[in-house]
Amino acid sequence: MKSILLAAILIGGAHSSGAFGISIQSKFPDPVTLSYGPDAKNTLVLWPAGGSNPHPLLIYIHGGSWTGNDKSLIFNYVNITNWLKKGVSVASIDYRYSTDAVLPAPVHDAARAVQFLRYKAAELNINPSRIALQGSSAGGCSALWILFHNDLADSSSPDPVLHESTRVQGAYGQSAQTSIDPVVLNSWIGTLAASYPMIFNAVGAGSYANMMANYEQYKPLFDEFSPINHLDANDPPVFLTYSSDMTLPPATAAAAIHHGMFGVKLKEKADATGYSKCDLLIQGTSVPAHYATGQAFLEAVLLQP
Q1: What is the pTM of this model?
Q2: What are phi and psi of 6, to 5 degrees?
Q3: Can you name the residues that pair with 35 across neighbouring β-strands?
Q4: Does residue 261 contact residue 189 with C-beta atoms inside 8 Å?
């Protein structure tokens, strides 16, 4: 659907304030803003790495309970210049909030952004076979869902963007939710996690009480958009990081919705299903991890042959 592929808008200049006020070095092309879908929220910023060869791509998906923040949050989590120096292009996406359009909108938007960047790979000098995701909190949940879910490519769609694969080569989740099912969260972490607004807003329930009173109505969405339900032994690698505070019950709602038990439970399922590519790092605990940092993990996914 060529009509939705809007022309790039240059948003930053060499030696000047680039996207979101950050200075971009002159040896790198200017960042561009692109529309990847029909909604006003379907926009992304791409920082292309210099050079003629197709570049690996890191896509950042912002957190905010699927109800807030925007693509500028990337500057809190990703050293863009460092990746450009390594020859990796970087993108950060916006998506529809669940308070405007409930699931599947926020997660399917993120998946469509992957498809769009593949569709435009030749034009944007991207290597479509070397794409990784990074996401924090709800953005991490979206990244894990895309990583584990079966390919959403639809060759019969009239929209050519949707012909492209959603499969990526790896994902780095920071304090990511691995389930959004409130019954599961009650058993893993407690009511502070299950009643967090991200969970009931995701399905349009309006409140924890309403969500639980109508749980069976919402359960298909909880099942579908809990990444842990899609994991199998053949999935690409994942790296998960969480805070060292493993206290149960958690002291605060924020600690609950970002609790390390999300990672522990995913690792338990990974081990049980023979998925050997799940790396979990919980600082200050004895949980072993192959990679010391998310940066090291992503470099292995994006830069190693």
Answers
A1: 0.91
A2: -70, 155
A3: 43
A4: yes
Q: Are 218 and 86 in contact (CB under 8 A)?
A: no
SS3 of 160-178: the string is: HHHHCCCCCCEEEEECCCC
Cβ(138)–Cβ(66) below 8 Å: yes
Q: Which residue has the tokens 């938007």?
A: 109
CB 237, CB 170: distance < 8 Å: yes
SS3 at position 289: coil
- d(CA 258, CA 263) in angstroms, rounded, equals 10
Cβ neighbors of 40 (< 8 A, separation 6 or more) are none
Which candidate, 143, 39, 137, 17, places its Cα nearest to that of 91? 143
7, burial (CB in 10 Å: exposed 0-12, middle 13-18, buried 19+): exposed
Work out whether strand 32-35 and strand 43-47 pair parallel, antiparallel, or are unpaired: antiparallel
Q: Compute the C-alpha angle 47/142/260, nearest 5°.
A: 110
User: How far is 196 from 159, CA to CA, in rounded Å?
Assistant: 36
Contact call for residues 256 and 190 (beta carbons, < 8 A): yes
Q: How confident is the model at residue 17 (pLDDT cuts 50, 70, 90)?
A: very low
Q: What is the pLDDT of residues 63-85, one digit of tens each?
A: 999 999 999 999 999 999 999 99
Per residue in 88-102, pLDDT (tens digit) is 999 999 999 999 999
Token pair for 8: 């790039």
> Could you give the CA distance from residue 57 to residue 130 in angstroms, rounded to a whole number?
6
Question: Which residue do the tokens 């659907």 mark?
Answer: 1
Mind listing the domains of the chain with CATH numbers?
2-180+226-303 (3.40.50.1820)
- Residue from 15, 58, 61 nearest 176 by CA: 61
Rg of the chain over Cα atoms, rounded to whole angstroms, equals 19
User: β-strands 55-61, 126-136: how paired?
Assistant: parallel
Q: Chain centroid to CA 6: how far? A: 23
